[in-house]
Design goal:
It contains two helices and twelve strands. By secondary structure, the chain is mainly β. It has a seven-stranded mixed beta sheet with strand order 2-3-11-4-10-9-8. A hairpin with a 2-residue loop joins strand 9 and strand 10.
């Protein structure tokens, strides 16, 4: 008789939307919708360029991590894992680049695959798909930000530091 392999049990309960960090990409905070209907995670990008480094396929992309804040933009580079045909929420197929990076939600860090796409008309800059959360978290569909909102202040701190620098220079 074959035994089923034991899967690790989820360690924490998270809300249907949470602030997460993507430290390898230099993104200190991004609001993500936890979407167990989406197989793969998706990240909104504003620009994309493919290039080669030492024979490895790479992508360079821009992202506005906060909705309605065009003044904040991060530029990232990552190796291309693959290109995949993905069905969007409207049922249309799109060929997308897939990268792998580390996601961080409070003290938990883990590798995830992310597809790169233009999510401008959508409410969230990132979807965290079911493959990224399975066996790690339980999702509470009626609650938000169960891990806190501390990351939401990441960009405010930088803005205040720039303002202080500007004031001292104007004496």
């Amino acid at each position: 008789m074959k035994r089923k392999r034991q899967k690790s049990q989820p360690t924490a309960i998270i809300g249907w939307k949470e602030w997460i960090a993507l430290p390898e990409l230099g993104i200190p905070a991004i609001k993500a919708k936890i979407d167990n209907g989406a197989r793969t995670s998706a990240l909104h990008i504003s620009s994309l360029e493919e290039f080669q480094t030492d024979g490895q396929r790479m992508v360079r992309f821009g992202i506005h991590p906060l909705q309605r804040r065009k003044d904040i933009e991060c530029f990232c580079e990552a190796p291309v894992l693959e290109q995949r045909r993905v069905k969007d929420s409207g049922g249309h197929f799109e060929k997308r680049y897939v990268i792998q990076t580390t996601a961080k939600l409070r003290a938990v860090s883990w590798p995830i695959d992310i597809t790169l796409t233009n999510r401008d008309p959508m409410l969230f800059r990132m979807l965290l798909g079911r493959k990224a959360v399975e066996n790690r978290f339980l999702i509470h569909p009626g609650r938000s930000y169960l891990t806190g909102r501390a990351l939401a202040k990441s960009y405010q701190i930088k803005k205040r530091q720039k303002a202080k620098k500007g004031k001292s220079a104007s004496f």
